[in-house]
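Structure in, sequence out. Go:
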């Protein structure tokens, strides 16, 4: 089977999400025939690095099936060596052409990191490690003057995309050569919709979403009047 281009892969995900949002999913590639077809090997068209939140099942929200997506999930979609290795495996060995960082609103990991920065609260056990890995995104958002929850979530998604390409020379080279594209996507829990936040690689008409401008002091004074 010919490999889908990064653009075609993204189109397939967005089309599947549109079906999911409208309440008319097709549930493709989920029958016994597909199961047998995949037994000798897999050929996913995209790799999803998503948050582990139980409400964020990639195959469901993008209306895909067995063998379509290579999914890596951690709380707050934080990165470690095993995550980087898994994503590199999906692109370099399995041939996935699209890497998606999938975040969402009401993210517990982001909320915990925000509380740690703003109030000095600390988490116990290895949860602290997750919070510490999200903290740079919170600090970057504060430096940019971002305060709204949605803007902070978007900043964390952008930060993860940047970190993927900064830490993995392989992924960076693949993106520069046009072999893969990397996109950051934000999912809305209530609506079920997926929105592109940032894009890297050869994806026409998908520029990086600009960071919102912080409110000016006079605007804040007017809002508080």
């Amino acid at each position: 089977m010919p490999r889908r281009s990064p653009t075609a892969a993204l189109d397939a995900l967005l089309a599947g999400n549109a079906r999911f949002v409208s309440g008319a999913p097709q549930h493709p590639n989920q029958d016994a025939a597909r199961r047998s077809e995949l037994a000798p090997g897999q050929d996913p068209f995209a790799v999803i690095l998503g948050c582990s939140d139980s409400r964020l099942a990639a195959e469901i929200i993008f209306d895909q099936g067995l063998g379509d997506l290579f999914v890596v999930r951690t709380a707050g979609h934080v990165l470690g060596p095993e995550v980087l290795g898994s994503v590199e495996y999906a692109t370099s060995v399995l041939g996935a052409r699209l890497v998606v960082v999938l975040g969402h609103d009401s993210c517990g990991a982001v909320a915990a990191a925000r509380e740690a920065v703003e109030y000095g609260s600390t988490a116990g056990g290895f949860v602290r490690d997750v919070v510490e890995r999200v903290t740079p995104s919170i600090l970057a958002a504060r430096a940019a003057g971002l305060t709204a929850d949605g803007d902070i979530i978007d900043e964390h998604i952008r930060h993860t995309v940047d970190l993927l390409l900064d830490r993995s020379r392989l992924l960076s080279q693949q993106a520069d050569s046009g072999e893969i594209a990397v996109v950051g996507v934000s999912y809305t829990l209530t609506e079920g919709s997926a929105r592109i936040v940032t894009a890297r690689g050869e994806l026409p008409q998908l520029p990086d979403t600009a960071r919102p401008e912080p409110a000016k002091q006079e605007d804040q004074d007017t809002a508080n009047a």
